[in-house]
Design brief:
8-stranded mixed β-sheet, EC 3.13.2.1, alpha/beta, NAD, about 475 residues
Amino acid sequence: MALPVPMTTIPRESKVKDMSDADFGRLEIELAEDQMAALMSCRSKFGPSQPLKGARITGSLHMTTQTAILIETLLALGAEVRWCSSNTFSTQDHAAAAIARDSAAVFTWKGETPQEYWRCKERALDWGPGGGPDLIIDDGGDATLLIHEGVKAEEAYENAGSLPDPASPDNTELQIVLTIIRDGLETDPKRYRKMKERLVGVSEAAATAVKRLYRMQANGTLLFPAINVNDSVTQTKFQNLCGCRPSGPDGLLMVANVEIAGKVAVVCGYGDMGKDHAAALKEAGARVIVTEIDPICALQALMKGIEVLTLEDVVSQADIFVVTAGGSKAIITVDHMRKMKNNAIVCNTGPFDKAIDMPGLESFPGVKRIAFNPQTDRWVFPDTESGVIVLAEGRLVNLGHATSHPSLATSSCSFANHAVAQLELWMERDTGKYEKNVYALPKHLDEKVAALHLGKLGAKLTKLSKEHAD
């Protein structure tokens, strides 16, 4: 399938929505640079030595204004870059246009179909006859998944002549992945194995994708080293402290005339992200109820004065449902949605797209979909004439409706983690330090990310004397 978006007129290969948005994108990138302290410090500290010179980096991460600063930091350190998004709705088209015009190959636009999304992934990984990238920045593991599925299919094709069957899995996106791999097998039957051989490693930022990497490590199928940046202190703690909390309500407030005060809001999951969303909804005046499977998280919610009940207890009473649990399948099912109040709002702030049973909703006999705002749909059931409002088609609401992540909270810390992880993998590529395993971001690199912020924020560290240090 060919991508329907026309190629840009510049020599650099890219597919974005509208290149005329590039000037606006450049303006927003320049404004955001002041909030991206660590990445800007990376440029000034490491740029002159070009430590990433010769490295090919493929990024599969939300293409936002803040991401643009990460891309241009990697370029400033000497790398070549190709990029796609990790979500069909999270792209800021003006940021994508600015990068495509000025800096790197970009393949993404807001509102891709699943087929377009995976074709963009394929293009971002395609570096020509010389193989694929040296390094991958992944958020959700999709680029990593495509290569692993590709290698598995190529080996089966070589050994038995068998082509992958896209109809075999139940997962519709995996069906698309297998179709892409099948279509390319006869043209280049070693394409993904060449990528595997060239790859130095991946840095991964999503919790569920990290769990998948650990599973692959355990069963011996992980093809290249991986650094887990999700569990670094500068990722998890600073996001909670620096402003990720409003992302759920911000997405809701982008829908016209949504009042949170006085509503009953259900937060599915009281992990780090759930805590932030529950607190924000509570501050906005909602009565918050949490659903939880973990007794420790449940106790923490109770100690904050938040009720803990099951979804079945409250499904017909609540006005707003926010799923924060990452990677789980059908936390809110179509049967739950049929029992909800008329015009109850359903959204997902977790990192994956299966938490809300969209396939079940879309295939429900006689259901009507009424779109009344971008990425805002009312689904009406035929037997009751009652409907639910689903935001961003069940995908990340804060990136589907609001404008990106907070720069300092998420992007400066998280993206700097990616940058130092990429540097670590590249600089150690010939030493044997990193094998085909998953590694936590080393503590000294976590501290480096924190330290890179300090000068920009006006801080001075106290230095221990030898006596104090001892």
